[in-house]
Design a protein that fits this description.
It is a single chain. By secondary structure, this protein is an alpha+beta fold. It has one domain. 48% of the residues lie in helices and 14% in strands. A three-stranded antiparallel beta sheet has the order 1-3-2, with helices on both faces. It is globular and about 40 Å long. The N and C termini lie far apart (31 Å).
Length: 94
């Protein structure tokens, strides 16, 4: 049994509210929707896994302070999944 998750469901999910900004949730939802289209199948919605797998940062400098091997945005794209949006960057933790 599957439940269709809309952008409004994603934005209102209490499990995601403290982990991502509003803009970040919109960008991440759009990314995941596009990924489903690219893959040709539905991704199972698991807000706990999303919260554990992805982190939102306000800038590349903040990411660089967390990951010593990241020096440029190209380094970041080379090492992980990156979702850029106005006001921040979401990466898949590595």
């Amino acid at each position: 049994m599957k439940t269709r998750v809309t952008v409004y469901d994603f934005l209102d999910d209490d499990l995601l509210k403290d982990s991502f900004s509003y803009q970040g949730k919109v960008a991440l939802f759009d990314y995941l929707e596009q990924l489903e289209d690219d893959l040709g199948y539905e991704i199972e919605y698991d807000p706990i896994a999303i919260r554990c797998d992805f982190t939102e940062y306000t800038s590349l400098e903040e990411i660089k302070s967390t990951y010593d091997d990241i020096k440029t945005i190209d380094d970041l794209y080379y090492n992980t999944l990156v979702v850029e949006f106005e006001g921040g960057i979401i990466i898949q933790d590595f």
